[in-house]
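Bench notes, afternoon.
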Amino acid sequence: MAEETHLSTPPPYDIIILGASGFTGQYVLKESLKFLNSSSSSPLKSLAIAGRNPTKLAQSLSWASHPNPPPNITILTADTLNFDSLLHIASLTKLILNCVGPFRLHGDPVVRACFETRTDYLDICGEPEFMEKMEVQYHDQAFDKGCLVVSACGFDSVPAELGLLFNSRQWVSPSAPNTVEAYLSLESDKRIVGNFATYESAVLGVANADSLRQLRRSRPKKARPQIPGPPPPRGPTIEQQKEVGLWAVRLPSADSAVVRRTLAILTENPSGLRGVNESADKIAERERFWSTVKPAHFGVKIGTKSLLGILKFITVGVFIGLLGKFSFGRWLLLKFPSVFSLGGFRKKGPTEAEVSHASFKMWFVGHGFSDSSTSSLENKKPDTEIISRVMGPEIGYITTPIILVQCALITLNQRQNLPKGGVLTPGIVFGPTDLQERLQQNGISFDLISKRALSS
């Protein structure tokens, strides 16, 4: 019934934000209000918010609209444990923005409600197991229904995806990259404090690591891109990256997994995925964009300016890695997050002052060949380095809402140029759109830093 209603009449809302009373959800609401009827050309004409507690949703709306009075926005009741409530809200909108995590606990029914009602879905998930499970279970159904399901539309993993694409496109033929390593630096003149839900997701990720490995082993091998030169060596556990002035250690985030999925799709579809109703000009534009993208081995490291900072990251990683494997250990980690994260996470999240003072830099250090045709020569090593950078405000409460809302506006305004449907990555969906330009207009910069020849 919900599906028939959705198809026969336009839904009353352009966007419904699910989980708008949560820590991140209220910032997503605040960012969305900037674009609600902001101009005659804004595609966001109607907005509603949904969650379990209408009182808390009303409080979030007042907070998000301050110092202005709250606008007349519909508040809907929905619970991830009540599938009918999810079907109801999904039938009322073109697009759901899901801010309810951890997604491995709450995300599946929201995705199902969206493709059953042919409603597009975006979220801010950074959990590889959830994203890959959704792809396995629901990609074909979402494609058949014409429903886009795109996770990781926040700091996880758009800066990594667009940052890699930006660096890759600086390699003008015949040059080509072999590796691009991203170095994330979190900066603030106050304490850097993360969202408890992010910490909880990391703890549950360790607990479910075996499930993710089994899921990946059970799937057919994905297409592998052709990358010039041999795979890079593993390298040291702790790296001193002198070019960007950081000590760094590998970051077990979702970024690398999401990028690999994008490159696998691109390997099978070298011109990208066709839009549901693209014009000839848009087809040519998309094909030109992807023709300039060169795949590379990709990884992400987190860095600080001091070795002591890296030792802190390693210590927190050891706590989560060891204690997250058994139930009592997980109870300790989640009961005392500030203790086991050495102050990096707390249940109440950061203060507004801590959010406003924080920022990030993500450096992309690419090594490759000035002439890719020589990469197969014996003992040939990369002879070129290109460094680029993505930089922006605090990652969880400012950058993530900026990215999610801009992805949503593109989905509303350019739906005919986006793929018909399926469970896809933000890179393959939004890469050839104007998302990078939109982010630049909203405080997230993309810069080419240097290009140089490497000594042999």
